[in-house]
Write a structure and sequence with these properties.
The structure holds three protein chains of three kinds. Chain A is α/β, with parallel strands linked by helices. Helix content of chain A is 52%, strand content 12%. Classes of the chains: A alpha/beta, B mainly alpha, C mainly alpha.
Chain lengths: 279, 249, 216
């Protein structure tokens, strides 16, 4: 086998090791390159900045533990921002496996910002049906969630005063790991109930949401860990997302190098095969 | 640091490392973690479903608040479960018919409004303004997605890709040029999708390694270090045992 | 009997489908009340559907253990994990925290479920790298276009790439907001037209695969 052929059939565990090191070393020895802010992330930030005190902000954490590294930092940054702006925060999730995580992040950030459950925020929890939940919330919020996650009757909570349905919510942001998320919130929610909708999502589904962004159906999009890092920079509270950006840079360049090498070796094999054929 | 958090850190680190051993080779440690993952996930789903559906959605409103109309969805849901009883399975069809009928009915006007009408409107509207505006200004900044030039590029992209997927018409002559344009647009979009998928997958790995680095700290009893040693030693033991049972050559 | 088994479900689908499609265009309070009630019912019925899905998994692994098929020890681990989680979860009323204190159920969630699920998906990073190296070859012009777009986007979305080649960030934004958006829009329109067509076929009884279950 020629050198190129041997390199193309290299043991994949060597590639695993390269990726592992490219992720580990920048995490242990960060460089801290500047992060440019993209317009789609700034739109979400600007909209929340523009909301007056006491506005109702609904954050739907529509993801499971598999997407935690990308969407959990987004949730932390958004919640810090919302609480700092003294917005009334309603938390919920459409994804059953994410309920524990959603409950934990809201109560933890609320505690850090000195906010009280029932008065400044409420966590409604999870309910089956996704699209049905959104429609029911759009018709009558208290029918969809008669009690909050701690079994307190929602109709008696001060934080929900004046909120009868989704029409009374000023801004909804869905942090989505799949189609049950931003798209469901738009089709079954904003289309009829006309609230403003923003989105945060994993890198996998982000490109598919750009048509909605362009048409204004969502007013902003925070894409992946990079989006979370940009939001952390905007609110001035750098966290795990910014810390992960150097590792992200290293791994991306590793992949680019691997792809280029693969094509170089492939090209070498093809040309040597052609010359061999001619001889 | 509370004791249960330290124990939790050790368990979490151990399970993470067991799954990572799959990168070397499929082995009993990985299989153990994999089956535990399925078991715990299903158990969690069962508990949450019971608590949310049985207690909060059915029992509390019906028994405590007297909303007996909920007997109807309870009956329909129960009909759905007859699917498992072969003689009575036909009754589950009624339940499925109801759910699918309502779902389709709800979806049709909403999908048409959100994904078809609104998307076509946004593709065409920037150009309509251009035609009827009267003024000769044509913004051609590529950096601004809302510029007129980009609106034209967007229209070309949408039409050519839609045409490419329209297989009822043969892609010959001028149609071939449109279809080929569509393919180029598609390839660029798939390239962008691949780039973003790489970004997403790497982020997931970064998240897990961040946790492993955190649990290597002294306050967690240096869990990562100790468990790494134990895991590698176990793998070597499995490897040696497998070599020992192989027939001599 | 055939009337009950075949025609009744189709009739139910037809009536409910037409009713709720029309409901969207009728803002009358009675119609809105109907929507509220039925969407609430769907939440409950969806819960039952979950029970359905989970039961089959229970069954598969129970059979494996009973028949002592190879690897049945692992099915035992699965069952132990499942039953342990259920017992502890129900003991704590399905709550991960009570008054800010983490319960045993919350402990299982945070230190077992989250790391397990997280790592299962994190190892995909390694596989995507290996797959990219082995098979991401520019075999044709179209594949080369795909490759170049992928490299530009991968570079433009990280701080190092924007630092080395600032224009890569701008090109990436253009690719995403214009080229990618146009393709995804076309795909979205196409898929939605197909979905609407399928929904209409289901409502009018042309498509019956969803019924399943039982003999005609």
């Amino acid at each position: 086998m020629s050198f190129a052929e041997r390199m193309l059939h290299i043991d994949r565990r060597i590639i695993f090791l390269v990726i592992g090191l490219c992720t580990l070393i920048p995490l242990l020895y960060p460089v801290g390159l500047a992060i440019k802010i993209s317009p789609e992330v700034k739109s979400v930030y600007d909209y929340i900045e523009s909301l007056p005190d006491g506005s109702v902000f609904l954050l739907s954490l529509d993801f499971d533990p598999a997407s935690k590294p990308e969407l959990y930092p987004q949730a932390v940054a958004l919640l810090h921002h919302a609480f700092k702006k003294n917005l009334r925060v309603i938390g919920m999730t459409l994804w059953l496996p994410g309920t524990g995580m959603a409950s934990e992040v809201i109560s933890r950030v609320a505690r850090e910002e000195g906010k009280v459950s029932g008065k400044d925020y409420v966590f409604l929890g999870w309910s089956p049906g996704a699209s049905s939940v959104i429609i029911t919330m759009g018709q009558d919020l208290y029918k969809a969630f008669p009690t909050d996650y701690n079994n307190q009757p929602t109709a008696e909570l001060p934080v929900l005063k004046g909120v009868q349905s989704l029409r009374d919510v000023n801004y909804v942001v869905s942090l989505a790991a799949g189609s049950t998320g931003i798209e469901t919130w738009y089709v079954f929610g904003k289309d009829k109930y006309k609230f403003e909708l923003g989105g945060g999502c994993t890198g996998v589904i982000a490109p598919g949401l750009y048509p909605l962004l362009r048409s204004g159906q969502i007013n902003g999009l925070i894409g992946g860990l990079r989006g979370a890092a940009e939001y952390e920079v905007l609110i001035g509270k750098k966290g795990t997302a910014v810390a992960g950006m150097d590792a992200q840079s290293a791994t991306h360049f590793a992949i680019i190098l691997l792809v280029i090498l693969c094509n170089v070796f492939y090209f070498l094999i093809r040309t040597s095969g052609k010359t061999a054929g001619q001889n | 640091m509370p004791f249960e958090v330290i124990v939790g850190a050790w368990v979490a680190t151990g399970l993470t490392l067991f799954i990572l051993t799959f990168l070397y080779q499929d082995n009993p440690l990985f299989k153990l973690a994999e089956h535990l993952y399925v078991g715990v996930s299903v158990g969690y789903a069962i508990v949450k479903t019971y608590d949310t559906v049985a207690v909060r959605l059915i029992y509390d409103p019906m028994i405590e608040q007297g909303d007996w109309s909920l007997l109807i969805p309870l009956a329909i849901g129960a009909l759905m479960l007859t699917r498992y009883v072969p003689k009575a399975a036909w009754m589950s069809r009624i339940a499925f018919a109801f759910v699918v009928g309502v779902g389709s009915g709800l979806a049709i006007p909403r999908v048409i409004s959100s994904y078809i009408l609104k998307q076509i409107e946004d593709t065409v509207r920037p150009l309509a303004f251009l035609a009827t505006d009267g003024s000769m200004t044509f913004t051609y900044s590529l950096l601004n997605p809302a510029s007129n030039l980009n609106a034209v590029v967007l229209l070309v992209g949408v039409v050519s890709v839609l045409f490419y997927f329209f297989f009822s018409v043969e892609h010959t002559g001028p149609g071939k040029a449109v279809a080929r344009t569509g393919i180029i647009f598609l390839m660029i979009a798939f390239g962008a999708a691949f780039g973003y998928t790489v970004m997403a997958r790497m982020s997931l790995l970064i998240g897990r390694l961040t946790d492993l680095i955190e649990y290597a700290q002294p306050q967690y009893g240096r869990a990562t270090w100790w468990l790494l040693v134990i895991t590698v030693a176990t793998l070597i033991m499995f490897h040696a045992r497998r070599k020992g049972t192989e027939p001599p050559q | 009997m055939t009337l009950l088994r075949r025609q009744l479900p189709l009739l139910i689908t037809f009536v409910t489908g037409i009713l709720f499609a029309a409901q969207y265009y009728i803002p009358h309070p009675a119609s809105e009340l109907m929507l509220t009630s039925v969407s609430k019912w769907l939440q409950i019925i969806a819960g039952f559907a979950l029970i359905l899905g989970v039961t089959s998994l229970f069954h598969i692994h129970a059979v494996k253990i009973r028949r002592k098929e190879p690897g049945w020890g692992y099915s035992f681990v699965l069952y132990a994990g499942m039953l342990g989680t259920i017992v502890i979860g129900l003991w704590h009323g399905g709550k991960e925290t009570t008054d800010g204190v983490t319960t045993a159920f919350g402990w299982i969630y945070t230190f077992m479920m989250v790391p397990l699920q997280g790592t299962m998906f994190a190892i995909l990073a390694f596989f995507i790298a290996s797959a990219a190296y082995r098979s991401f070859r520019a075999r044709s012009r179209e594949a080369a276009v795909l490759l170049i777009a992928a490299v530009i986007v991968m570079m433009g979305r990280v701080p190092l790439g924007e630092h080395l080649i600032p224009i890569s960030g701008d090109i990436t934004q253009w690719i995403l907001n214009v080229l990618n958006a146009s393709v995804r829009r076309a795909i979205l329109i196409g898929i939605s037209l197909g979905a609407v067509a399928l929904s209409l076929k289901i409502i009018f009884g042309v498509e019956r695969a969803y019924l399943g279950g039982g003999k005609e």
